[in-house]
Design brief:
81 residues, mainly alpha, 3 helices, elongated
Length: 81
């Protein structure tokens, strides 16, 4: 039995948002599905960037607590490869 490549979903929006959403899709020349996928990918990318910067901030804090230099950190990174 073949697997489906797409799954239909239903969402509910206030009328004014739905109208604006439809207008944006028409203006861009995209389907509502294409617009949603684009918006979702942008959201996902933003969340990944937020997580990266959160981890970077945590790593910087820990490195300072441990009094590590950039050279120390580079050495640890390359030792692990």
């Amino acid at each position: 039995m073949p697997t489906r490549k797409r799954i239909a979903m239903t969402i509910s929006l206030p009328p004014e948002i739905a109208q604006e959403y439809n207008k944006i899709a028409r203006t861009k020349g995209e389907t509502k599905s294409q617009l949603f996928r684009e918006m979702f990918n942008l959201y996902r990318q933003e969340k990944l960037e937020d997580e990266f910067f959160r981890l970077q901030k945590y790593g910087t804090k820990k490195a300072k607590e441990m009094k590590l230099t950039e050279k120390d950190i580079e050495r640890f990174i390359f030792e692990g490869r």
